[in-house]
Structure formats: C-alpha cells, structure tokens
Amino acid sequence: MSLKDLPKLELHLHLEGAAPPAFIRGLAKEKSVDLTGVFKEDGSYAYRDFVHFLSVYEAATSVLKSPDDYARLVSAVLEESAAQGVVYCETFVSPDFCGGSDVGAWREYLHAMQEAADRAEARDGIILRGIVTCIRHFGPDKARASALCAAETAGDWITGFGIAGDEGKGKPGDFAWSFDLAREAGLRLTAHAGEWGGPQSVRDTLRDLGVERIGHGVRAIEDPALVDELAEAGVTLEVCPGSNVVLGVYPDWSSHPIQRLRERGVKVTVSTDDPPFFHTTMRHEYEQLERVFGWETADFLEISRNALDAAFCDGNTRERVADRLKDHPNERTSDDR
Ligand code: HPA
Ligand code: ZN
Question: Which three-class secondary structure string do you get for the chain?
C-alpha cells in the first residue's frame, strides 16, 4: 500500500487555516470583501512571519460571515482531507470567529458545521470532531466567553478545548479559569506550546492548564528532563513538521526533532496545522518523513495508533476508526512490538 492510501489520523488542524485560497477568494467576491494583502500574485497566502501569518489568517477569516459559510468550509476541507487518506480528523474551531462567542449564535454555526461533517462522513467515510479553541492574543476575557460556548455545547461532537494564537502573549496561567470550566464540562484539553516558547512554556502549560496533549511541543527537545517527563506521563504531541519548517522554527526537515522525540519515548502524531498556508498536505508530510527519516509503513501505523489513543472521541468512534486501521496488511501485531 502506498503512503497515499495509508489511513491517516489528523489531530491538529485549524479549520479556517485549512481553507483553500480559492475558496476564500470566492467568498470575498460574493460578499465584496476587500482582501488586499492576503494573497501573493500566484494566488497563495502572503505572510512574512508567524505574527504576520496570524493577522493574514484573521483577514482571510473575515469573509466567513454565516453558519452556511462555515458549512461550506467544512465540506471543502473534508473533501481535501478525505482525498489525502485521512479517516479521522479533529479541527480547531473558534467561537470568536463564529458569531463573536455569543452562545446562541455559536449553536447555529455549530449545527451547520456538524451537518456538513455528517454529509462528508456519509460521502467519504471521514469522521470529524471539533475542539473549541480560544485565541491567546485576544486575551483571557475572550477566552472565558469561548470556554462558556464550549461548555454549553460539549458532547459527542465538541469533544475538546484548546488555545491557539500568539504564544508570545500572556501566560498559560491567565487562561486557567477557562480550562477549568472546560474540564468540568467533560471536555478533553490541549494547548499550543513549545513552538515559539521554549521548554518552560511546555512545563507552564502542563502545570497551569492540566492538558493531556500539547500542540507542537517540539521545543521540549531542548530540555532532556522534560522529554523524560513527557514520555513517562504519556503526553501526546501534535507535531506539525512542515509548519515548523515553513515558519522557521527549524531551518530544514533534517533538523526537526520529531524522530529524536520518538526515540526518547514521547508519543508523537503528525498533522498539517494550516495546510494551504504552509504549502503542505498530509501526504506531503508523510512523503517527507519517509524521505528524510526513512519512515516505513510500520512507523506510520505507530503514529496512527498514537493518534487513535490520544483522540478526543468516544469509545464507539474510536472503535470505528480502529477498524479502518486494523486490517492493514503491514500492521504489526502487539506480539512483535
Ligand atoms: N498556530 C497558532 N495559532 C494559530 C495557528 C497556528 O498554526 N493557526 C491559526 N491560529
Ligand atoms: Zn496550530
């Protein structure tokens, strides 16, 4: 079976960040929104660095103005993910962009997204779950409003709560109230850390927010004791190597620590983050991991099992996804692991 056909699980995907540029341009035209500066001449997204990326991201997102726009976005994104061989996906969704974190409006956006996801599942078999995500540079008050939306709609589809945005703004502890609320509502927790911040940002995030997964977390490699702690505690990292290389966290693929983290016993998974922004796809990530680190089918299946174990879904969904992996001809049995 080729890498293209391997069943893939993706745990770290920003919904708006997965929007194809042509999709955003189409909506901008329909709604007469001026997106000057968002695109390069070749039609791809234009940004200089991470902080500029965040502002271009928000400008592009400004064309998404209704539940129906989000339904169309979910359809477009899942069509592409399914074509990449993704069978299970978790996406970050932000009430800030979906009705300004008003609970009533948020419910309408959510309903539309879920219906679109159900249609995609019926069409392509791909399963989607949502992680409500607050945005760090919007501050702790906005995060509280997002957490309230998350808590109100926690269930089979909204299964997690997280934080994205500018890691340089504020401290993890500023968002503890929101994470506590989400936890009490039964949501599973993840947070971006250790991408722009060093190992201490991962330590602070684990201590103050009590998350079970870390978005990126790759800079933990700079602190061997932390690497051991992550391995022992079974914290799963949502690693997005292509994103890290394009944004300059690492100068090239061969410098990326994903293989070293794995060798040290850390549970890693592979995702694309914001694929069109970073000129990547799940297949491209797999091809690079094969080319640069010599990963084989068994390595990719191990990554998929890590993702399955760490997925924020109920047991029944986990079993359905496991079935998609199980009959794989090259899967090692538990005896020879
Ligand atoms: N990182 C942090 N925040 C984000 C991202 C990202 O890749 N995409 C959208 N918000
Ligand atoms: Zn991210």
Answer: CCCCCCCEEEEEEECHHHCCHHHHHHHHHHHCCCCCCCECCCCCECCCCHHHHHHHHHHHHCCCCCHHHHHHHHHHHHHHHHHCCEEEEEEEECCCCCCCCCHHHHHHHHHHHHHHHHHHHHHHCCEEEEEEEEEHHHCHHHHHHHHHHHHHHECCCEEEEEEECCCCCCCHHHHHHHHHHHHHCCCEEEEEECCCCCHHHHHHHHHHHCCCEEEECHHHHHCHHHHHHHHHHCCEEEECHHHHHHCCCCCCHHHCCHHHHHHCCCEEEECCECCCCCCCCHHHHHHHHHHHHCCCHHHHHHHHHHHHHHCCCCHHHHHHHHHHHHCCCCCCCHHHC
Q: What is the pLDDT of residue 105?
A: 98
Low-confidence ranges of the chain (pLDDT < 50): 331-337
Looking at 3.20.20.300, 3.40.50.2300, 3.20.20.140, 2.30.40.10, the CATH number of the domain 9-20+66-328 comes to 3.20.20.140
The pLDDT score that the predictor gives to residue 324 is 95
pTM beyond 0.85, yes or no: yes
Ligand 1 site, residue 274, Cβ cutoff 6 A: yes
Distance, CA 327 to ligand 2 centroid (Å)? Answer: 31
Q: Is the CB of 192 under 6 A from ligand 1?
A: yes
